[in-house]
Amino acid sequence: MKETGVIKFNCNWIHEAPLNGHLIEDLNTWRDKMFDLSFIGVNDEDIGYGNISRRFRNNEFIISGSATGKLLKLGSEHYTIVTEFDLEKNSLTAVGPILASSESLTHAVIYQCDETVNGIIHIHHYELWKKLMNTIPTTRADVEYGTPAMANEMIRLFGETNLKSQKLLVMAGHQDGIISFGKDLNEAGNQLLNVYNAL
Questions:
Q1: Domain containing residue 35: CATH number
Q2: pTM
Q3: pLDDT score of 5
């Protein structure tokens, strides 16, 4: 598995107290399910992978923090709110007790591209990744995770493929990486379970 979990953007981190517990209930419900299936977890090099987010208000969203993939359970201290981002400057602002996930720019652009999206789950699963590669919207193989280029790939896929209706994509240049999204986390999560069960 390629290097994962490393932040590649400039983060203006405004450190604040943990979020209210009710704000993360649905996030933790699906995060636990993904962790139990090893869709979110830690690789052999002890680097966490996978993340989850939901829209908070407008284009702000709550996302699991950096390096939380390897934790068995997440609490309020493990989520943060992304309040703004700038692709050209490769930067974002996160408000909360922890740095935002390394894939936050990608999540941000998906929320911006489709206002009906309210939940996003990024998982890793090799067999599913290989099966879905180039059969559903797929990012270019030379594009690395966590970069403005990957975020721009979301814009390209929304414009050139059926991503808006498919709600599922493969990250060709991010080994094992798959992103699912939907009108809520239930839609995003159930879509992953459905394709996994069809393996």
A1: 3.40.225.10
A2: 0.96
A3: 60
How far is residue 147 CA from its own chain's centroid? 13
In a domain, 1, yes or no: no
Phi-psi region of 38 (alpha: psi -120 to 50; beta: other; left: phi over 0): left
Residue 5 covered by a domain? no
Q: Is residue 26 part of a domain?
A: yes
Lowest mean pLDDT, pick from 42-46, 53-57, 82-86, 154-158: 42-46
Count of domains observed in the chain: 1
**b/e sequence 62-92, b meaning 16+ C-beta within 10 Å:** bbbbbbbbbbeebebebbbbbbebebeebeb
The residue behind tokens 């966590």 is 146
Non-local (6+) Cβ contacts of 3 within 8 A are 47
CB burial of residue 126 (10 Å; 0-12, 13-18, 19+): exposed
In the chain, what percentage of residues exceed pLDDT 90? 91
